[in-house]
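Thread: sanity check for a docking pose with adenosine-5'-triphosphate

Original post by kr_44:
Hi all, I'm comparing my docking run against an independent structure prediction. Below are the sequence and the ligand SMILES. Could someone generate the full complex and paste the structure tokens? I mainly care about where the ligand ends up relative to the chain.
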Amino acid sequence: MLRVEGLNAWYGPSHVLQGIDLEIRRGEIVCLIGRNGAGKTTTLKSIMGLLPKTTGSIVFEGQEMRGRPAHIRYGAGLAYVPEERRIVPGLTVRENLSLGLVASPLKSRESELIERTKRIFPRLAERLEQTAVTMSGGEQQMLAIARAMISEPKLIMMDEPSEGIMPVLVDEMFELFKAMKAEGQTILLVEQNVELALGIADRAYVVDQGVIVHEATGAALLADAEIQERYCSV
Ligand SMILES: Nc1ncnc2c1ncn2[C@@H]1O[C@H](COP(=O)(O)OP(=O)(O)OP(=O)(O)O)[C@@H](O)[C@H]1O
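Reply from moderator J.T.:
Ran it for you. Here is the predicted complex with adenosine-5'-triphosphate included:
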């Protein structure tokens, strides 16, 4: 579904990604792990088209995306949930979900898509008319994910979704990712919560100083204390 080759990215003069290679197959959960500052967020932003300067190749569903604006990539089926959830606090859950369909060709299917969202995200189903700001951080994060999911992206990329969320909701969120996968959703996940992430990942890549230094199945990496110690300890 996605093949990234030789991806380089810069912030001004700072050369952050130095040749990232990775691949995601349909239906997989793939996890990117690595220390703070390794380049995980930059990788997601580069794939989504949010950085001004990148080189290399990002082929998604057979189409070269590099150099194309973010809205074209979105239209092709890429979605990105940033670490800072950008939900609209003063709107209800339902209104926030509707925002995910603004300018989407799927707008005419809104009620059907909201029903589907309610099935996948039961916690939101109970709160559709609640103002987003009155929900817990974890519920707001689920809303941000649901809003990205409502437009039926082929690949959803999530940056540290469990950050700052109470443990019971983190567990629920990881159950949610499994349910999304069971529905056929392909997921690229950046997570500091390495054990939980590797527990659900089909495969994982370790990023260090802007390059991929290791690739393995989630289970193999989970059992590899040495790699985890070397590249993931803070
Ligand atoms: N807007 C920016 N301007 C300049 N440098 C940046 C910017 N954003 C990130 N960087 C730098 O790019 C490098 C990679 O950052 P990135 O956010 O991709 O890392 P990360 O692996 O996602 O880490 P974290 O877990 O801390 O978010 C870091 O050295 C960081 O300081």
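The chain has a mean pLDDT of 93. Hope that helps with the comparison, let us know if your pose agrees.
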